[in-house]
Amino acid sequence: MEDKKIAVSLRDVSKRFGKVQANSKVSLDIYNGEILALLGENGSGKTTLMNMLAGLYFPDEGQIVINGQEAIIANPRDSFKYGIGMVHQHFKLVDVLTATENIILGLNGKLGKKQAREKIVEICDKYGFDLDPDKKIYDMSVSEKQTVEIVKVLYRNASILILDEPTAVLTPQEVEKLFNVLRKMKADGKAIVIITHKLHEVEELSDKVAVLRKGKYIGTLITKETTIQEMTDMMVGESINLDIERPDPVNPKKRIEVKNLSVVSDDGLKKLDDVSFDINSGEILGIAGISGCGQKELLEAIAGLQKTCDGSSITYIGDDGSKEEIVGMDPLKVSRMGISFSFVPEDRLGMGLVGNMDIVNNMMLRSYRNKGIPGFVERKEPRKLAEDVVNELNVVTPGITTPVRRLSGGNVQKVLVGREIASAPKVLLTAYAVRGLDINSSLMIYDLLNQQKKKGVAVVFVGEDLDVLLALSDRILVMCGGKVSGIIDGRTADKNKVGLLMTKLGGEE
Amino acid sequence: MFNLVSFIPRAVAQGIPLMFGSTGEIITQKSGNLNLGIPGVMYVGAMSGVIGSFYYEQSVGKGNLNPFLAVFIPLICSLFGSLLMGLLYSFLTVTLKANQNVTGLAMTTFGVGFGNFFGESLIKISGLDVPSIALSRTSACFSAKLPFAKSMGWFGKVFLSYSFLAYLAIIVSIVAAIVLKKTRVGLHLRAVGESPETADAAGISVSKYKYLATCIGCMIAGLGGLYYVMDYACGIWSNDAFGDRGWLAIALVIFAIWKPDVGIFASILFGGLYILYLYIPSMGHMEYKELYKMIPYVVTLVVLILSSMRNKRENQPPAKLGLPYFREER
Amino acid sequence: MENKRREPLFHIVKRDTLPAWQSVGIRIIAILIALVVCAILTTALTGDNPFDVYYTMFQGAFGTERKTWFTLRDLSILLLISLALTPAFKMCFWNIGGEGQVLAGALAAAACMICLEDKIPDPVIVLLMIVTSIFAGAFWAFIPAICKAVWNTNETLSTLMMNYIATQLVAFFIIKWEVPKGSGKIGMICQDSHVGWLVDPMGNKFLLSIIVAAVITVIMYIYLKYTKHGYEIAVLGGSVQTARYAGIKVGKVIVRTVCLSGALCGVVGLLLVGSVNHTLTTTIVGGQGFTAVMVSWLAQFNPFVMVLTSLLIIFLDRGASAIATSFGVNESFSDMITGIILFFIIGCEFFIRYKVIFKKNSAEATVNTAKAEAKENSTEKIKDKATANEEKEDEE
């Protein structure tokens, strides 16, 4: 390892956005022929740091040294010039263009699609990618899109490769494939940085691991010589008990019966295919699956926001055993029947809240109809509720009249969850409730869910982190390609089994 | 009896200003800028050309115009005038990230005012009694047609009886279509309108493309104004005569589903609808003519609704149309 | 050493919200600069002393009591159209069809007057005029609204087309009803009988539209801020997904709100025919449907601020007419001036929402920005703006 050369060296790099110090005086070396894992919690500044290498942001302070010389990366073009290529977490692809067109986007010279296609096929053969160069992006799966992104970087002969959370959207099998590709590139002498917060991936893949915390550089470790505990400590700063409490289910009774639920999207794709399962009161039902396997549609169908196919049935069973068919009813109709649903959607600011409105106005989003003089809105109760939520959930905000758009991700989520719980629901649906949240906020959310469970609420928790799902849920429903591939007991479930079910390999009947 | 051979040239003459306008607007919209200022730009384009030719005619006095200069000076003036408008729009919406709808409407207010103000001033200078400026000598140079067109019967009349600006409009549209479809610049431009953050990450200068597309688009649209005055109106400028053609050009963009080559036919079709009322008998009732004039708008509305009902992926506007781009948005 | 770097000279960051007085200050300064620019332009084009010109403008708008009344009435009409369009805009429905909706209302009112003049009693006709014009305006807005709600048809373009259809429809009826035959004009409707002429409160023929505008301003403010409808509009304007999630019937709210817009435009049509003009022409709205879009936007959809923004536009308009007569400049000059002032106001929004940080003192600037933000005075930003505007022609 001694003969490895430094490819990139960051020296005292700082960047701030408004009042947020995203990076402060970060120094970091990246070596050729090595895989460096950049580890940190959400919001620790990993992506910002790498975006400065990619030329999207310009550092406020500090130097970037590439191959021994100071480099000024003012825009992405400079970044390519220095051989840096970045695969962003949110893919930077143009939907209506083909793979080839996306790959050659931004290059100079004649268009030459034919030669480009040849070169793409060559790259795919070399590293073992499976890619149709003429396919439009909007027809592609997530993993295909990622392949396009990686090929795009290789097409430019990048020698320094940065991947931002590349595994978040992949199946375990696809992850393995990706890792093999990355190892091949490493063998080619390329410098690779992979941004992640998944520790087992760090262990499996990387040579070194650099840790960021709250925008500051904490240190670099040799992967072989460290332990998960050590990395976690560096990442979170203090030792946090990672154990999530799991109280026993409280008098579980069937609350919702989903039968033969199918959903077809606007462009004719089958999003849910004949899904049947039960949701019980007093327990947490975890839903696992690779993103885009129908979890979103499933929750929205139950919440009455998704058109369902004929033959689908969603039955609500009241405390007294009375049954109500609620499929195809909009949320308003369902709530008028006296059934109280709460729903924490995946897209917080795009669906659960109105970004430009203040906390008070957001509090009344689901209840404004029934309160106050007919025709006029009533803001006294929502104001009280806003104050309560802010105080009890420790929402960091200048005040309850601050537009929620200006709060940080975790605080936005607390506002949303706080509101949904306040309506004393019978059923609580949550989608990716802890995505983007730091550990403390996540723990608070788990705690809130458990409290609801203890109150006898039927909780549905759609998650992406298998460890959390396994620790929190009483039962886990695994989805794959719009179908239920298995329902297993959360207490006895095995992570590998779930992973296989997610890809249907283990779930084949 | 409906005379197709005389109808088509008139439809084309009506369609050419719209063709310039819609081609310009398509290029602009492909970059993600929804320029509602096109009506103003076309006024400015027309008026700049009028000013240029007015002073050239004045300077020559009673002598003969140099045909090259008579065309060249108004052309350059017109392009320059619309270029300034394009720069103004780009500066406000791209650099200062202003609301595009409002900026466009303000530009239309300004542009129409500009055209009518200088129009009136020139009318005053020329000292005529009629409320219009006649630049018939310049117009003669602009509307010069192919000499052999007359000798070719209906074929000559339908295909060859137009001035060079008309052919230029078609050429510009075809070139624009090819550039958008087949070249790297076109690819980059489409990327900028569809997903500026992607284009940015790929090293394409979003601002540069937006500026360029908007300015070139405005210059093309401005030519539509110039064609209207110099050829269609035979060099006679009277205030407000250009009417609402600018707005129609914007509507045509949808009609042409953001494809300049489709725009050629859409413009001519629209031009035909625009004058159809002259060909439908009104049976002695003048008021029916007014109803017939409604046809192009009704047809556009119907096309607009039908295309939104079909909702095909390929026929949709650029995804980020009308939205400013700010890289460090968080 | 810094100069050798090929780094950007300055970069732009988003601001947190400025205190109200600062953002108002920036806007006022922008208008002042715009007035200076317009003054220079005026002098260059007319050779007259700009102060004389502005004085004349002021005289033209407020010089005599009568002129002030005229200004106030024009103001009330523009304000009413702006108010009418506002609920739709707040919902992100870009209704630029105010023109057509007003025309539809005006046509309905005129139709009642012309067709029923001798047939039924005056009060019934007035009642019918009110009902039909409101209905006509609402109907004209209903068509684009329902298409938007069902097929997501682009409303900017459909409302635009509806304008022309309304114009042609009015043109058709004008020829049908023309007095005298062949003139292409209707002339004063019910000139002798005064049937269908709306009341002039306290004998003042300007007052009716002013009172209506004042009342509707207050009602619109309350409607948007304190009613459930207003809340639904705001949610829908924020995000359609959220609205659906909150159980709001998106299509219903779109149709309801846009029809309300149209109905209010219909009221304007009623006022124009029944009170202001007593006649009907195709240009009776005079492009105010478009101007109102800007008025509403400049006021950030606040009905009370709209009084000021529409006053600004009307002042320019009437002032320019005065210049036209006394300096021999034509009236289109006011459009140019309005355009220029709008450019400055539109441009200055940038300095309210963003701030420019220059690289030279970047180290200090970035560290201090947070603290300095409150202290930073707006004039500095305006200076930036002024230079920026001067350079706009060279801007790449």
Report on this structure.
The complex is a heterotrimer of chains A (509), B (330) and C (396). Chain A contains 17 helices and 20 strands. With 509 residues, chain A is of the alpha/beta class. Chain B is built from 14 helices and two strands. Chain B has a two-stranded antiparallel sheet with strand order 1-2. The longest helix of chain B is centred in the N-terminal third of the chain and has 29 residues, at 67-95. With 396 residues, chain C is mainly alpha-helical. Chain C has helices at 20-46, 50-62, 65-90, 98-116, 122-151, 155-177, 207-226, 228-238, 240-245, 250-276, 288-298, 303-327, 332-353, 362-375, 378-390, and strands at residues 10-14, 354-358. Chain C has 15 helices and two strands. Chain C has two domains: 1-47 and 354-388, no CATH class; 68-314, ABC transporter involved in vitamin B12 uptake, BtuC (Orthogonal Bundle), CATH 1.10.3470. Classes of the chains: A alpha/beta (509), B mainly alpha (330), C mainly alpha (396). Chains in contact: A-B, A-C, B-C. Chains B and C meet through helix 3, helix 4, helix 11, helix 13 and helix 14 of B and strand 1, helix 6, helix 11 and helix 13 of C.
Give the averaged pLDDT of chain A, no decimals. Answer: 84
* Cα Rg of chain B: 20 Å
Number of domains of chain A: 3
Structural class of chain A: alpha/beta
Identify the overall geometry of chain A.
Answer: globular
Query: What order do the strands of the largest sheet of chain B run in, or round the barrel if closed?
Result: 1-2
* Main pleated-sheet profile of chain A: 6 strands, mixed
Largest sheet of chain B: 2 strands, antiparallel
CATH domain fold name of the largest domain in chain A = Rossmann fold
CA gyration radius of chain A, whole angstroms: 24 Å
Distance between the termini of chain B: 65 Å
Span between N and C termini of chain A? Answer: 48 Å
Strand content of chain B: under 5%
Structural class of chain B: mainly alpha
CATH architecture designation of the largest domain in chain A: 3-Layer(aba) Sandwich
Uncertain spans of chain B, ≥5 residues at pLDDT below 50?
A: none
